[in-house]
Amino acid sequence: MDELIPLSQASLARLPASVRVPRYDRGALTPGIVHIGLGNFHRAHQAWYLHRLFDMGLNHDWAIIGAGVRANDAQMRDRLLAQDCLTTLIELDPAGKSAEVTGAMIGFLAVEEGNAPLIAQMADPAIRIVALTVTEGGYYLDPATGGLDAAHPDIVHDAAHPDRPRTAFGAMVAALRIRRDRGTGPFTGLCCDNLQGNGAVLRRAVVSLAQLSDPDLAAWIDSACSFPNSMVDCIVPATGPREIALARDLGIADAAPVTHENFRQWVIEDAFCAGRPDWDRVGATFSDDVHAYEMMKIRILNGGHQIIAAPGEVLGLTTIAETMADPGIRALLRRVVTEEIAPHVAPVPGITPQDYLDLIDRRFSNPEIADTTRRVAFDGSSRQPGFILPSIRDGLRSGAPVAGLALVSALWARYCRGLREDGREIAPNDPHWGRLQTVALAAESRPMAWLEQRDLYGDLAAEPRFAGAFDGWMQQMRENGVAAVIAAYCLS
């Protein structure tokens, strides 16, 4: 492109004709949603659905106000405000690329200690939904009970200082206190993270935190607010120089473009205490059985990501598509899912678990999506227990095979040693990396040290079928390496 056009509301008319731009008057939009966690996934997924609704001339009173509660959220705020909260979405598909600029977000709150701007915005009666994408590990869950970790320093702080909270959940509690006291009614809390029963998880976090400082408020929140479960799905890589260059190739100077695959899915319980947009008009599914959809997605897609990311990183493969081009890793994925995960997953309308495996095989193999093994392997201490261990427990209960899933755990332990097979270091990639690396190194000579991390594995070290298989794989891997142990499993 000869001319590079800085992305802004004023420049939309100058963008290339091939780039779809908002067909609605953004100046006439009014806010109805506060979204906490303005990462790439939200902008490629939930914000896109709303943008397309606005394009249809619908729901213009449901625009998004962005928010964050971490210091680095301020960096995203600066980038987005500089371009009028517009985002260039670039769809990457082997059949060709396409792009559109979305404009469903109309503001981004200041990120401040104590979260006063966020609390004030959520207390506004115009806000009827507070949505979150704060990652699976961002809900302060106690691994032993599944409830709120009341001993976490952030939670202790918010319970003691409810008017100056550190967490998103503390800010929600503070805003709901104001709404209750003013008689302006509740809002819906909408979790958009990959957690089974994510609405129930969000309810538990908010209500339990309120209980620590104001039991009466906690009871009001529990009875008046709604927290629908939802399942979200779209592969959205992190933004780096490649993604910024793709936008520049279109002639757009966008400081925070987003690339994504040609697939989206959003399944939501229709339980909104203060109304909702008509997301079903643009492809979302409202269902009373979100659990079945999320089970398929979390077990097979998210679990599948964990199956391939760790060995991919150890073998020096940079992207998920590269791991799928590796015959051993692809065979590992297909066999583990077919024999040890899919048997515990029920079909949903229109697709069986085996059909879904074929779908994610194609999606993971998309060479246009530069989704890195490092991004997918991040926070295994949350993702392995959330996405892999439930299938292990199902297999142990039913007498089904678990040897492949034991290998997946062994490969994660090998990854956490922090060293690739070619000798290069794997940089820390987990909130608990220091501990994980120490235990992984100890497990080289005593494999059970890894399974004895009860906060991750519970009592699985005492399950002979699983622990025995894990021990065997660890010994084989120490003697023969990662590729050989994967081949041994796939040929067994």
Automatic annotation (TrEMBL):
<dbReference type="Pfam" id="PF08125">
    <property type="entry name" value="Mannitol_dh_C"/>
</dbReference>
<dbReference type="InterPro" id="IPR050988">
    <property type="entry name" value="Mannitol_DH/Oxidoreductase"/>
</dbReference>
<protein>
    <submittedName>
        <fullName>Mannitol dehydrogenase family protein</fullName>
    </submittedName>
</protein>
<dbReference type="Pfam" id="PF01232">
    <property type="entry name" value="Mannitol_dh"/>
</dbReference>
<dbReference type="InterPro" id="IPR000669">
    <property type="entry name" value="Mannitol_DH"/>
</dbReference>
<dbReference type="GO" id="GO:0016616">
    <property type="term" value="F:oxidoreductase activity, acting on the CH-OH group of donors, NAD or NADP as acceptor"/>
</dbReference>
<feature type="domain" description="Mannitol dehydrogenase C-terminal">
    <location>
        <begin position="289"/>
        <end position="475"/>
    </location>
</feature>
<dbReference type="InterPro" id="IPR008927">
    <property type="entry name" value="6-PGluconate_DH-like_C_sf"/>
</dbReference>
<keyword id="KW-0560">Oxidoreductase</keyword>
<dbReference type="InterPro" id="IPR013328">
    <property type="entry name" value="6PGD_dom2"/>
</dbReference>
<dbReference type="InterPro" id="IPR013118">
    <property type="entry name" value="Mannitol_DH_C"/>
</dbReference>
<dbReference type="InterPro" id="IPR036291">
    <property type="entry name" value="NAD(P)-bd_dom_sf"/>
</dbReference>
<feature type="domain" description="Mannitol dehydrogenase N-terminal">
    <location>
        <begin position="32"/>
        <end position="280"/>
    </location>
</feature>
<dbReference type="InterPro" id="IPR013131">
    <property type="entry name" value="Mannitol_DH_N"/>
</dbReference>
